[in-house]
Amino acid sequence: MSLGVSLVELPPEVLLHICSYMSGVDLGRLSMVCRHFHDLMEVDAIWQRLCREIGVAAIHYSKSFKEVYINLLHHSGCLLGLWKNVAHIYGGLVSVEFVEDHLAAYEYGSIGQELRNPLSRTLLFTIEMTPSAKNIAEALVCHQRGRHSPQSISLSQNKIELICQGGHIPPGTTEIEDVVDMDVLSMAEISYMHSLNRFEYQLFRDKLLIILQSPRLLLEPVIISTNERPSPWCPIAPGLFKGSYGGHGIEVIQLKYDLDANKAVGLKITGDPNIPATKVTIEADLSRPMVLTREQQSSLQLLQQIDLPDLLDVSEKEMCNQPFVVPSACYEREAAPPTCSARFHSRGQIANESYTDARFIPGHWIVFDEDTFGHLWMQIHSFSLFTRIKDDELRPLSS
User: Pathway it acts in (predicted)?
Assistant: First the structure.
């Protein structure tokens, strides 16, 4: 006599537990075995677990987790998260979020030169929950300014490439005024444009026209492995920061650590004609900390002397809170705190337009607190302040 138990005879809670280890594809196959398993697949808790694993914990009240997973997240859930646009020199920070019953991708940037202002956002595309869609392209709606439905799209976990059909901006357009009345500029952009001097206006014009004329999005993932310091010797946690870059305005960088080289590295997520997106902007040597008095920081000449290794060996000094002063004759766009928690020898990358004659110049990397650091550019007499971009600043569209 056989003592075996048929799978369909197992208690429902046991079957549900078994299903919790199965993928969406396997659950679909199981539902086709028999009516019993088909009915079991109607239990929404099974699909809720799959949605949560992707990062979707709440949905619109009119939908079920099964609907959301099968018609949307199964093919598009891998797109959720942070991406960087590498299609042109200005780059861009893009977040793909689940919003009630669809995915929305929007680009974050800065309008103006005020570091304390929140990032602005522009909707790029949505992926709708369309049961009739045979593939992701059929569920995608392009919202790029002045663009229409997607002409082509290729998707993977490592890259999103989207080309939208022609828009309202002719390739030969050279003036912002030609597009102001075409419903592609926001009121904030128009207002900011009229507040600029001639040089800043030219920079802003060139940036807008390049972005508006580009039909292509090429997104690569932004990987932030941890929100904690990877080593006790790292003075600040890695992550995304926004900082002041003079006439180019506010730009977004990613702070990372190269522990093998004992360096902190700032990579540009957004860029400008001098240093494009994806390039290194700052490198700090963590093996060369320094502790300076207020008097030693009073002028760039004194700081440059301290940078000479035969004058002062600071590599053995213990990091501690110390005064901070922006040297005289050094341009400071944002007011910095009066004290810092750590200071290191560093170098910053500068270049001529079109990233020509690129080179690194000496500087100081100054950490103020867990969310703020600065960089002193010695040779160009400039100080840049950076603040952390927190999760609530990258808010979903429904907020």
Answer: Protein modification; protein ubiquitination
Q: What is the pLDDT of residue 202?
A: 83
Neighbours of 204 (CB within 10 A): 20
- At residue 317, the pLDDT reads 46
Q: What is the CA radius of gyration of the chain?
A: 26
Amino acid at residue number 364? H
Average pLDDT, the chain: 83
Q: What angle do CA 191, 196, 201 make, to 5 degrees?
A: 105
How far is 17 from 217, CA to CA, in rounded Å? 42
Most confident listed range (125-139, 214-228, 336-350): 336-350
* pLDDT at residue 4, as a whole number: 65
pTM summary value: 0.85
Phi-psi region of 198 (alpha: psi -120 to 50; beta: other; left: phi over 0): alpha
DSSP letter at 178 equals H
Determine how many CB atoms are found less than 10 A away from the CB of residue 223.
Answer: 9
Q: How many CB atoms lie within 10 A of CB 158?
A: 9
Q: What is the DSSP letter of 377?
A: E
Q: Find tokens 């799209």 and name the residue.
A: 153
Domains of the chain: 8-74 (1.20.1280), 78-220 (no CATH), 226-391 (no CATH)
Q: Are 96 and 108 in contact (CB under 8 A)?
A: no
3-state secondary structure 30-45: HHCCCHHHHHHCCCHH
Distance of alpha carbon 1 from alpha carbon 382, whole angstroms:
87
182: DSSP letter:
T
- Judge contact between 360 and 345, C-beta under 8 A: no
Both tokens of 64, joined, read 């079920």
List b or e across 319-346, with b for residues whose CB sees 16 or more CB atoms inside 10 angstroms: beebebbbbeebeebbebeeebbbbbbb
- Highest mean pLDDT (candidates 185-194, 254-263, 324-333): 254-263
Q: What is the DSSP string of 107-164?
A: EEE-SSS-TTSPPEEEEEEEEE--TT-SSGGGGEEE--TT--SEEEEEE-SS-EEEEE
CA gap 168, 148 in Å, rounded: 9
Q: Mean pLDDT throughout 225-230? A: 74
CA 12 – CA 46 distance, rounded (Å) = 12
Instruction: Tell me what percent of the residues of the chain surpass a pLDDT of 90.
Output: 37
